[in-house]
């Protein structure tokens, strides 16, 4: 039972970083913008957050640095695809490649650095409950923050006027423009907000999840987060559940190894990515379901006055 409680706790931890990034990408896509550069954003934010933590010793400043780096790069991406109307898919891939190379270059001097040990975090009284306490109530505050963010984003999208406008921009930017809404600025704000959440996820990886810097340490998590938005049919609550599912699959390999299950380690390492492919294949087999839930203008450029 103790091992299962630890598996649940590790799954929540692993799912949190996927949820943060995927929620950011959801904001982008609800506004009609596809950003394939999440992997690069998270890598740059990871080194920005780690370097800040090394020099300041502050976890809060590290998260702020990661969010700032993510928002800045996402803003540059937004200028390219929103104002210069470059291809969103090509620009996103270029951003991912840039982030990978830039983070590797900047991070050369930080590969041997270590962060100071973090203080143990737990919720008083609740953490002492057998099984439930170790599984749910000894998490980093950002784990609970991701849950609160999911609820807040769901309220914003479906219960607020600003959320309605954002979804309208993603469905029909021409109609929103005709009603007087600044479509380009709304899209840029959505892209930067999404980039800041991807940046927060990247900083979480390098300062909390695996508190160190290694080149390419995001290891495909940005692509999994991108797949999560489709897996969840662009709904925040489903993103959170999907993130925990993928987090569980990721941690399952370590649990099985600890239980002495004789399975090739290479196969266990494949599980998160294999499950991503399987889920996408299953969802993509129903094209009508995808069209019914996907923002109508996703990936399409907008030309005011055309």
Automatic annotation (TrEMBL):
Keywords from the UniProt entry: Cell membrane, Membrane, Transmembrane, Transmembrane helix
Locations listed in the record: Cell membrane
Domain of life from the UniProt record: Bacteria
UniProt topology in membrane: Multi-pass membrane protein
TM spans (from-to): 6-26, 33-54, 60-82, 89-110, 141-158, 185-206, 212-232, 239-258, 270-290
Chief place where the protein resides: membrane
InterPro entries: ABC_transp_permease (IPR001851)
Protein's UniProt name: ABC transporter permease
PANTHER family: ABC TRANSPORTER PERMEASE PROTEIN, SUGAR ABC TRANSPORTER INTEGRAL MEMBRANE PROTEIN-RELATED
Pfam families, per database record: BPD_transp_2
Organism: Roseateles oligotrophus
